[in-house]
Amino acid sequence: MNAAATPEPAAVEIVALTKRYAPGTPAAVDRIDLRIASGSYCCLLGPSGCGKSTTLRMIAGHESVSSGDILLDNRNITNLPAAARGTAMMFQSFALFPHLSATDNVAFSLKMKGVGKAERHKRANDLLERVAMGHLAARKPGELSGGQQQRVALARALITEPRVLLLDEPLSALDPFLRIQMRAELRRWQKELGLTFIHVTHSQEEAMALADTMVVMNHGVIEQVGSPHAVYNHPASEFVARFMGGHNVFDTPAGPIAVRNDRMRIAAATQAATDGALAATVTDVEYQGTYVLLGLALDGAAAGRQNVSVLLSEAAFLARPYAHGEAVHLSWAEADARVLGPGVKPPSERAPAPTGAEAARQDDTAVLAVPF
Ligand code: ADP
Ligand code: MG
User: Fold this and answer.
1) 223-236, pLDDT tens digit by residue?
2) Which bound ligand lies closest to the C-alpha atom of 63?
3) Which of 143, 180, 205, 257 could join 139 in a cystine, given CB atoms 3.0 to 4.6 angstroms apart?
4) Cα separation, 123 vs 151, whole angstroms
C-alpha cells in the first residue's frame, strides 16, 4: 500500500511531565519520567483516576502541560499543536460520524486539509483494504458491528500517517467476547504496521495480553515499568501486586512480601506444619476449569489482611480436594517470595515539587533508565 505507507515509528520520551488542573489541587500527573521504545506496544495501566488519560492527552496535544517535556525521537513536541506532532488518537467510543460512510469517515481529516475527493477517497479506501474493511467502505457506522467500527476508527487514525498511535480504552465499549478478539487484532496491527502504540487501559489482563512494556500508574505517578512478565513476577510494591491480581501479600518481619497464588503450598491442618506455615481456613472453592481457586482466611491476621487465595491445578485439586470450612496450613518456597518496596505515597504525603537550583540539578538526571 503506497498511499498510506507506514512512516518510521518514533520513540517517545517523557521528562518530569506534570499536569495540575487547578492551582492548589494535587497534580493529576506528577513529574513522571518514561521512555517508550520505538515500534513497541506500551500500555499505561492503573485504576480509574490515576492519570492515564491525562498523560495520553498531553502526548496527543489535547491537554496543555503544566511542566515537563514530551519528546518524539528527540524532537520536543511539548508545545506543538496536535496535528503537527506525528501522533494520532483513537478514542474509546471510536467517535465516528454516524452520517458518513466508512470511506468518508476515514477521509475526513484529508478533506479538512483540502485534499481533493478522488485522492482522499483512494487513500481512505486503501487503508480500509488494509484493515480488511474494503468491501464495507460504503456503509455508515450504524450498519457496522463494533469490531468493524473499530477497524474504521483505526483506519481513520492512520490516515494522518502518525508515528505514534494513542489509544484511550479502545476496547472498553465492546462486549467481552469481541474485546478479546479485537485486542488480538490490535496487537497484530501494531506488529504489522510496526508503529509505536501507547494504549491506556484499567484492565491488567488487557495490558498483559498486549504490552511489550507495561507502565503501572497510581496517584498520578508511575509505580513500575517493565515487560508483563517482569511486572507479574517481580511486583515492585504492594499496590502493584494487588492491582495485578494473582498474588497474596504477607507481612513478615522483613516487611511485606508477595507470593503468586499458584506458588502457594497448601496442606491439611492435620498434617505436621512446616516451619513458618500459616494457619488458615478455606472460605471459598471456585471451579475455573483448568484451575480451582481457593479463597482462604488467615487465622489471627489483622483486619483487611486475612484474605488469601490459592490456585490449584484441576488435577491437584481432584487428587486432594479441599472443602469449605476446612483448616489448612499455607507456606511457600523462599524463592517464590518477592520483597515489596514501599511504592508511591499518596499526593498529600509527597514532597512538594523542587524549585530553582534544585529543579535544575534534578533535570539532568530526570530520565529513568527503562530496560527495553
Ligand atoms: P484515568 O484516565 O487514569 O482514569 P484521568 O487522567 O482522567 O485518569 O484523571 C486523573 C485525575 O485528574 C482525576 O483525579 C480526575 O478527576 C482529574 N481530571 C481529569 N480531567 C480533568 C479535567 N478536565 N479537569 C479537572 N480535573 C480533571
Ligand atoms: Mg481515562
Assistant:
1) 999 999 999 999 99
2) 1
3) 143
4) 15
CATH class of domain segment(s) 248-339: mainly beta
What is the DSSP track for 19-44? E-SSTTSPPSEEEEEEEE-TT-EEEE
Do 297 and 308 touch, CB atoms closer than 8 A?
yes
Q: How far is the CA of 135 from the centre of ligand 2 (A)?
A: 33
CATH 3.40.50.300, the chain: domain bounds: 12-233
- Which ligand 1 atom minimizes the distance to the CA of 53? 2
Nearest CA to ligand 1 atom 7: 53
**Ligand 1 neighbours by CB, cut-off 6 Å:** 21, 28, 46, 48-54
**Closest residue by CA, ligand 1 atom 14:** 49
Ligand 1 nearest-atom number relative to CA 29? 10
Q: What is the pTM of this model?
A: 0.88
Which residue minimizes the CA distance to atom 23 of ligand 1? 21
Domain with CATH 2.40.50.100 in the chain: 248-339
- Determine the residue type at 235: P
Phi and psi at residue 169, to the nearest 5°: 45, 55
Q: Name the helix (H) or strand (E) containing 218.
A: strand 213-218
> pLDDT tens digits for 270-289?
877 777 899 999 999 999 99
- Given the CA of residue 220, which atom of ligand 1 is nearest to it? 10
| Closest ligand 1 atom to 50 CA | 3
Residue-wise pLDDT for 165-185, tens only, equals: 999 998 887 788 888 888 998
- The confidence score (pLDDT) of residue 26 equals 92
Q: Dig out the grid coordinates for 12 from the structure.
A: 517517545
Ligand 1 centroid, distance to 187 Cα (angstroms):
27
For residue 94, the model assigns a pLDDT of: 66
CB 179 within 8 A of CB 186: no
